[in-house]
UniProtKB/TrEMBL annotation:
The lineage of its organism: Eukaryota, Viridiplantae, Streptophyta, Embryophyta, Tracheophyta. Residues 89-370 form the Protein kinase domain. GO terms for molecular function: ATP binding; protein serine/threonine kinase activity. Signal peptide: none annotated. Its main location: membrane. This is Leaf rust 10 disease-resistance locus receptor-like protein kinase. It is found in: Membrane. Belongs to the protein kinase superfamily. GO terms for cellular component: membrane. PANTHER family: RUST RESISTANCE KINASE LR10-RELATED. The chain crosses the membrane at residues 20-42. Pfam families: Pkinase. It comes from the Eukaryota.
Length: 403
């Protein structure tokens, strides 16, 4: 009886053990199958992303090759990222920081000094990079900065420009620096800078085969060489347009607060065109006059209106522009021309603003021929929103819209 019971228990144990092994095997097979499916799904997904990234990279490369082909012998040179590191001594000397990257000083193999703008890796799919290379590769003018080369290697992108030893104009007209003797520019120098910038913009609007609208004219984007000759830089927001087109279509707003034309901020003021650059130029040369006189235009939301009122009061009362009236008659005349031209350029109605060709003529002509325009009803965003760079960056559109 005991033997039969023992045999029965052994039989039951064997059957249970077999079922357990089968169940364990099935579970393991199921887990393995799930793991294999997960791996296949992950590979397919990452492969798709890699294909998309490769396709985008391929598209940008094709655009770059087309640009270089169109430029012919004047095409900027393409460098590797290791070349860029050598040029900048591993990015040792930083010159400044912009909305899309940092600028470093470097030098070419022949010893020529250069400025290298290294674009942020997180900034989009390369549209801004292509936009700048495309725009500036089409230019050749004494008042437009020269693009010497570029680097496009995966996410690593850099633009190589001629070096401007005197930096940007904003350092010389900022209120913070106006009391520093070495930062002072004479009225004659300011006047020549205003004319040079106007000629550069006239060239972009009329002198190129394809009209270039800059959309970010401001003191920070005006570079000065050793002789204080101004050069327009930073074409990341520029648009290329056929000359026959009067207006351009644009998604959103682009530019820097304080220099954005009303129609760019709100289409209720009219169509966006080359006259939008004229407005930015007008605000800039008024800043040049105001900065020279240490006028505070950053007090509150009404500061821009206050600033323009200050300009009008000086013109209407025929007071000398300079502090303590330390100006010659010739200097005062040129300062007044800058003020009158600036006021014409910032008229709210784009059709009331002069072309850049007309601006050059007004600056170089006689003061007696210039009439003071009516006060513009300023409707651009208040300057206090641009107190920090993040506010400005948030109002910069990088969309690849077309003309």
């Amino acid at each position: 009886m005991k033997l039969e019971l023992k045999l029965g228990l052994m039989t039951l144990w064997g059957k249970w053990n077999l079922k357990a092994k089968v169940a364990t095997g099935a579970s393991a097979a199921g887990a393995l199958m799930g793991l294999m499916l997960l791996i296949l799904w992950y590979r397919r997904r990452t492969s798709g992303k890699s294909m998309i990234f490769w396709k985008k990279g391929s598209d940008i490369n094709q655009k770059i090759e087309a640009i270089l082909k169109n430029c012919g012998p004047l095409a900027p040179k393409r460098y590797s990222y290791s070349d860029v590191k050598k040029m900048t001594n591993s990015f040792k000397e930083k010159l400044g920081r912009g909305g899309y990257g940092e600028v470093y000083k470097g030098k070419l193999q022949n010893g020529e000094p250069i400025a290298v703008k290294v674009l942020n890796e997180s900034k989009g799919d390369g549209a801004e990079f292509i936009n700048e290379v495309t725009s500036i590769s089409r230019t050749s003018h004494v008042n437009v900065v020269t693009l010497l080369g570029f680097c496009f290697e995966g996410h690593k992108r850099a633009l190589i420009y001629e070096f401007m030893p005197n930096g940007s104009l904003d350092k010389f007209i900022s209120n913070d620096n106006s009391s520093t003797e070495e930062r002072q520019l004479g009225w004659e120098t300011l006047y020549q800078i205003a004319i040079g910038i106007a000629r550069g913009l006239e060239y972009l609007h009329r002198g190129c085969n394809t009209r270039i609208l800059h959309f970010d004219i401001k003191p920070h984007n005006i570079l000065l060489d050793e002789d204080f000759c101004p050069k327009i830089s930073d074409f990341g927001l520029a648009k290329l347009c056929p000359k026959k087109e009067s207006f351009v279509s644009m998604l959103g707003m682009r530019g820097t607060i304080g220099y954005i034309a009303p129609e760019v901020f709100s289409r209720n003021f009219g169509g966006v065109s080359h006259k939008s650059d004229v407005y930015s130029y007008g605000m800039m040369i008024l800043d040049m006059v105001g900065g020279k006189n240490n006028v505070d235009v950053g007090v509150d939301d009404t500061s821009e209106l206050y600033f323009v009122d200050w300009i009008y009061r000086r013109l209407e009362t025929d007071k000398k522009i300079g502090q303590c009236n330390v100006m010659t008659e010739e200097q005062n005349e040129r300062a007044r021309k800058m003020m009158i031209v600036g006021l014409w350029c910032i008229q709210t109605d784009p059709s009331s603003r002069p072309s850049m060709s007309r601006v050059v003529g007004m600056l170089e002509g006689s003061l007696e021929t210039l009439q003071i325009p009516t006060r513009p009803a300023l409707s651009s965003p208040p300057r206090t929103l641009a107190a920090d760079s993040s506010a400005t960056d948030n109002l910069v559109s990088r969309s690849s819209d077309s003309c």
